[in-house]
Write a structure and sequence with these properties.
Layout (H helix, E strand, L loop, with lengths): L1 H13 L3 H5 L12 E11 L2 E13 L5 E9 L8 H4 L9 H5 L5 H4 L9 E3 L4 E11 L2 E12 L2 E10 L8 E6 L2 E13 L1
Length: 192
C-alpha cells in the first residue's frame, strides 16, 4: 500500500496539469536543422569580466543524419595561451553549452507553461517563475527565473529566456550569492 501511495505522489508531481497542457511549452534541444546560433558569453569573476563567443551550427543531412559544428572565440593574453583554450574550453573545464543551459534542468523546464505570472514549484526545493516577454538577438521569448531554497529564502539561481520555436535559450544568466556569474545572450539566429 505504501508503494502505491508513493507511486501516486510521483505521478501527481511529474504529470502536467490540465492548464499546462493547454499553454505553450518549450522543448529544449528540439532542433529543426540547417540553423545557426551565435552567442556572446560573459564570465564574471569579481570585478573582472571575460568575454567570449560561441557558435553552434546544425545541419540536417538526411532523415537520421546530422552534422554539428561548434566554435569558440576567446580573448586571452599571449602568456595564457594553452591547451585549455586550444581545445575549446571557456572559463575553465566546462563546455560553452553548460554556461547556456544545464541539461539537468530540462525535465522541469519543459513542464512550465509559458505565460506571464505562471509559477511551478520544485518539490519545496525552489520555484520557477515566468515573467514578461523580452527581445534578445532579434528573437522574442519568455523570461523565466529559477529560485532555489537557501536557509528558507528563495534565492535567484538561474535566469533564462526562451523562444518556444528554438532549441536553446536566447539568454541565460547564472547567479551565485546574489551576483551574476555568467551571461550568454543570442547575437543572431539563422535558419536556411
Amino acid at each position: 500500500m505504501k508503494l502505491f501511495a508513493f507511486a501516486a505522489v510521483l505521478v501527481a508531481c511529474f504529470a502536467p496539469s490540465a492548464s499546462a497542457q493547454d499553454g505553450t511549452k518549450w522543448k529544449p534541444y528540439q532542433f529543426k536543422g540547417n540553423e545557426r546560433y551565435e552567442y556572446k558569453m560573459l564570465i564574471i569573476e569579481g570585478d573582472e569580466k571575460k568575454e567570449s563567443g560561441y557558435i553552434l551550427d546544425l545541419r540536417k543531412k538526411g532523415a537520421e543524419d546530422w552534422e554539428i559544428t561548434s566554435s569558440n572565440r576567446n580573448g586571452v593574453k599571449a602568456a595564457q595561451i594553452g591547451a585549455e583554450h586550444l581545445f575549446g574550453n571557456v572559463g575553465g573545464a566546462l563546455s560553452p553549452i553548460m554556461f547556456l543551459m544545464n541539461p539537468l534542468y530540462g525535465a522541469f523546464i519543459e513542464q512550465v507553461e509559458l505565460k506571464e505570472g505562471e509559477k511551478m514549484s520544485l518539490f519545496g526545493a525552489g520555484v520557477i517563475k515566468v515573467g514578461a516577454k523580452e527581445k534578445i538577438g532579434g528573437r522574442e521569448g519568455w523570461n523565466c527565473k529559477l529560485y532555489t531554497k537557501m536557509e528558507d529564502k528563495d534565492v535567484l539561481t538561474w535566469e533564462w529566456t526562451v523562444d518556444p520555436e528554438l532549441g536553446l535559450p536566447i539568454k541565460s544568466i547564472t547567479y551565485a550569492d546574489g551576483k551574476e556569474k555568467t551571461r550568454c545572450e543570442l547575437v543572431s539566429y539563422k535558419k536556411d
